[in-house]
Amino acid sequence: MCKVVDVRQSVLAKNDHLADALRTELTARGTTVVSLLSSPGSGKTALLEQVLARMGVRGVPVAALTADLATENDARRLARSGAPVKQVLTGGLCHLEAAQLRAHLEGWLPGDTRLLFVENVGNLVCPASYDLGETLRVTLMSVTEGEDKPLKYPLAFGLAHLVVLTKNDIADAVDFDGAAFTAHLARVNPEVPVLRTSVRTGEGVQALVDHFLAVADGAVPHRPRLASAPRGGAHAPGGTGGHHHDRAPAPAPLTSHQ
Amino acid sequence: MHELSLATAIVERAAETARRHGATTVTAVRLRVGEMAGVVPDALVFSFEVAREGTVLESARLVVEEVPARARCAGCAADFAVGTPPFLWCPRCDRPAQALLSGRELEITGIELQEAET
Ligand SMILES: Nc1nc2c(ncn2[C@@H]2O[C@H](COP(=O)(O)OP(=O)(O)OP(=O)(O)O)[C@@H](O)[C@H]2O)c(=O)[nH]1
Ligand SMILES: [Mg+2]
Q1: Are A143 and A172 in contact (CB under 8 A)?
Q2: Which domains does chain B have, with CATH numbers?
Q3: What residues of A are in the B interface, CB distance below 8 Å?
Q4: Could you tell me which residues belong to the region Disordered (chain A) (predicted)?
Q5: pLDDT at A242 (0 to 100)
Q6: Cross-chain Cβ contact A231/B71 below 8 Å
Q7: Which of the ligands is closest to the CA of residue A122?
């Protein structure tokens, strides 16, 4: 006999619920998660090195987790700041998921961490779909990548709470068209704040640090328009609401490293 | 290629539903995919064919319904098509959209089962 079961289940529900739980739990204990997303080589690690160092000077307890397909290079670079750092090897996976992040935080993340930075795998496509429990999602792009990237990767740029334009020291050398970039970005993410940075000249690094500290102190991040749409499932308008059995049980609280 | 992760999640969900209903075979899974879901439907169908192997979905079809992205204007309250790449400004008022109403769906809406004969 044939039968059709009507369901309304978001395919990403499991990840979304886990991410939400992680955000709630970490926020309650005073930790704010900042995620960094960009194509390979945009300068995520280089910028993070300087941010971690400045946080250290100010005595703000921070930690960083960096994801790559292979090598521990990024963790080694970040660890020079003295902050707790962890490398996640995704074993070929093109993005981080909330469950993976949670498993890596378990027993490692120091309890007094104010800001946890998560550097995603260099990729502008796949990571965009996965909520990691971050309060601030930063999408970076270097001036060498071309002004049209916000249009080619609308989710990565459209879901960002903050956009950072890196390597601004070489903007003139590559004829970067700032006006075109701003127009393209505004098209997919109206009113998103943008910071221009350079690790060579130090431009913008302090402004970035200040932005992170403000968010850790409770400043409300920008609201991307694309983030407002329902992803489907029981929470969607008109949803049947009767499918809570496929909700993952709440995980046990994270234990922290002292 | 996160489509393979998504296809695997779809297969797991459908297999779980089949188990709950005591069904031996899933014949089809219906899916709504938004224009701005960050998913390529063809890549998803291809990944589904890989992910279903050796499961109760072995012969199941993936039926994809695409959902256009629409946004609402904060000024005139009209809805408008966002297009691809998205343009999140009202074509009438030239003001930023208030919210995206649809287009990010990635939702299983129906699972067709073959129930065991009793
Ligand atoms: N001129 C200049 N070069 C930079 C800047 N930031 C980073 N770079 C260089 O860009 C290259 C890549 O930087 P990374 O920090 O490794 O980039 P990433 O985004 O972490 O790369 P993946 O983790 O592999 O995705 C390195 O050679 C850096 O020295 C900058 O502000 N100016
Ligand atoms: Mg890096």
Answers
A1: no
A2: 1-68+103-118 (3.30.2320.50), 69-102 (no CATH)
A3: 1-12, 14, 93-95, 97, 125-126, 128-130, 151-152, 154-155, 158, 186-191, 225-233, 236, 246
A4: 223-258
A5: 38
A6: no
A7: 1
Residue A91, domain CATH: 3.40.50.300
In chain A, whose CA is at the least distance from the CA of B113? Answer: A3
| Geometric angle at alpha carbon A131, from A239 and A89, rounded to 5° | 140
pTM over 0.90: yes
Structurally, chain A folds into a number of domains equal to: 1
Tens-digit pLDDT string for chain B (118 aa)? 689 999 999 999 999 999 999 999 999 999 999 999 999 999 999 999 999 999 999 999 999 999 999 999 989 999 999 999 999 999 999 999 999 999 999 999 999 999 876 5
Collect the ranges in chain A with pLDDT lower than 50: 235-246
ipTM of predicted assembly, 2 dp:
0.90
Q: Which domain holds residue A105?
A: 30-218
